[in-house]
Design goal:
The complex is a heterodimer of chains A (240) and B (251).
Chain A: H1 3-16, H2 23-38, E1 42-48, E2 54-59, H3 64-72, H4 78-85, E3 89-91, H5 102-110, E4 115-123, E5 126-135, H6 143-162, H7 172-197, H8 201-214, H9 219-228
Antiparallel strand pairs in A: 1-2, 1-5, 3-4, 4-5
Chain B: H1 3-19, H2 26-37, E1 41-48, E2 51-58, H3 61-73, H4 77-84, E3 88-90, H5 96-101, H6 103-111, E4 116-124, E5 127-136, H7 147-165, H8 179-188, H9 192-204, H10 209-222, H11 227-235
Helix pairs in contact in B: 1-2, 1-7, 1-8, 2-7, 3-6, 7-10, 9-10, 9-11, 10-11
Classes of the chains: A alpha+beta (240), B alpha+beta (251).
Chain lengths: 240, 251
């Protein structure tokens, strides 16, 4: 593992946890860094909705097949098992996991993945979600990398709890609910922007995020305002 | 994993409506909320431009007065809930915090007999449809573990409210049929494509997000398809909707 990348990653994540940061932006950064640090192909953070559903809060790629793989795990899969047991769940060879998780294994293999890890996001006795890592090939993460992976999952949990804005959010359930609501607004904004500019969802997300950062606003606020039609200077007009 | 809780709640809503001999409506949401959380009364206020606008339904006269009071004062849990898109759970209106947050509202609410007030936003991402408000004449928090049920009820109220507001305006069949019953399984599991398709439709149809969502549901219902499948087709650009519904189809 690249030691410099490791330290940069944790410094960047810590820097982000300042007042008024956006939890979805933060979690997205975390999935992105997880992919690079752990040399996996894809990563996603799933959170337990107070209604009892496991939902995607952030993913390293907006590719539809990947998102579907996360969404499938509501019914079965490593994230669900991880969430229920509070233990890390690994499958070194998805081809052999089809008895354990028939639909999930088939979908993951079709998407080109060979291994999967789900690392619990825990707060004291409660499991609030999981960090899900997908790799091609059939080699599991080394123990040292797994420890970093768990540390990243723990950082994700801390980040989620750290977000405080004007509302007097008291409970963990409310905090989770708020994060997932933000995600919905961001998805709506992605759709509107993708249609408006004729770009794909990945590009739409990048445009939203870059605009939020450059204009010093929270990603969620930009998303809500854009969907409500109240952003004056976004998207910027095409050049020329 | 999760279907049971939402199905149970929707089952209660359907039962309540059937017993009254009518379609499921926000009135059923209010009644079921009161029954299941052992409260005194409930109301739904519809929003406009992100703020509370008018009272849509109430279970009793005190709820009506509590709802109207907030609109009159321009202050209260319903405003906070829409501004922050987070629930307000004021288990004891007697405490300092309530008086500090809502100086005008709190004393009058207590005079009306409310000792605890709970409000849930009726929102889907950036769509702010309204507020579900509830009160109890004695102080104390909501039952442990009820938050999940409350959120499911709020989801149902949001969808009913949006369907009702956009009834027939852009819908494929315009009869305002009880879409909730047919589509409830679709709402149990969240799908990113549904939100993305909603966003896309605001551009395709040049309408606000609430209306776009209602139109998406109306299309799915009229074509007897699952909401998530229709959304997936729209996101994959296999399906495009138009202002004139007869033009809906492959682009």
């Amino acid at each position: 593992m690249d030691a410099e990348l490791l330290s940069d990653t944790f410094v960047d994540l810590a820097d982000t946890m300042v007042a008024d940061f956006d939890v979805i932006d933060f979690l997205h950064m975390l999935t992105d860094r997880s992919v690079r640090l752990l040399s996996v192909s894809a990563a996603g953070v799933m959170l337990a909705d107070p209604r009892g559903e496991l939902r995607v809060a952030a993913a390293s790629s907006e590719a539809a097949g990947l998102v579907e793989l996360f969404q499938l795990q509501n019914d079965q899969g490593p994230c669900l098992d991880c969430y229920r047991t509070g233990h890390p769940i690994t499958a070194p060879d998805l081809a052999g996991a089809s008895q354990r998780w028939p639909r999930f294994a088939a979908a993951a293999i079709q998407a080109g993945f060979g291994t999967v890890h789900a690392l619990p996001m825990r707060l004291r006795d409660q499991v609030i979600g999981a960090l899900n890592l997908f790799g091609t090939g059939t080699v599991l993460l080394e123990p040292a990398d797994l420890r970093i992976g768990q540390a990243l999952a723990d950082v994700a949990t801390i980040g989620l709890l750290q977000e405080r804005n004007v509302r007097r959010v008291a409970t963990l359930a409310e905090q989770l609910q708020a994060a997932l609501n933000s995600r919905v607004a961001i998805e709506q904004a992605k759709g509107k922007l993708a249609e408006r500019l004729n770009v794909d969802m990945d590009q739409a997300f990048t445009l939203l995020r870059d605009y939020a950062r450059s204009s010093n606003q929270r990603l969620t606020d930009v998303a809500r305002q854009f969907v409500a039609g109240t952003t004056a200077d976004f998207p910027p007009p095409p050049p020329g | 994993m999760t279907e049971r809780r939402a199905e149970v709640v929707w089952g209660r809503l359907a039962e309540h409506a059937a017993a009254a001999g009518r379609r499921v409506s926000v009135a059923d949401v209010c009644a079921v909320a009161v029954q299941s959380a052992q409260l005194t009364g409930a109301w739904v206020t519809a929003a406009r431009d992100g703020g509370p606008d008018f009272v849509l339904c109430v279970t009793d006269p005190v709820s009506e007065r509590l709802a109207e009071l907030q609109l009159m004062l321009g202050e209260g849990p319903c405003y906070d809930v829409l501004a922050s898109v987070a629930p307000v759970l004021a288990a004891d209106l007697d405490n300092e915090e309530a008086s500090r947050r809502w100086p005008g509202f709190t004393s009058q609410a207590r005079q009306l007999g409310a000792a605890a007030i709970f409000a849930f936003p009726l929102t889907i991402g950036a769509i702010r449809a309204g507020v579900l408000g509830m009160f109890r004449s004695s102080p104390g928090p909501l039952p442990t573990g009820w938050l999940g049920d409350g959120l499911v009820l709020a989801d149902a109220a949001t969808v009913l409210l949006l369907d009702g507001l956009h009834d027939g305006a852009d819908g494929a069949d315009g009869t305002g049929e009880p879409v909730l019953n047919g589509q409830s399984p679709d709402l149990v599991l969240h799908r990113a494509e549904i939100d993305q398709a909603t966003g896309m439709l605001t551009v395709q149809l040049d309408i606000p997000a609430g209306a776009a969502f209602a139109r998406l549901r109306a299309y799915a219902y009229a074509h007897d398809r699952r909401l998530a499948d229709v959304a997936r087709d729209i996101v994959a650009r296999r399906l495009r909707l138009h202002k004139e519904p007869e033009r809906d189809g492959a682009p």
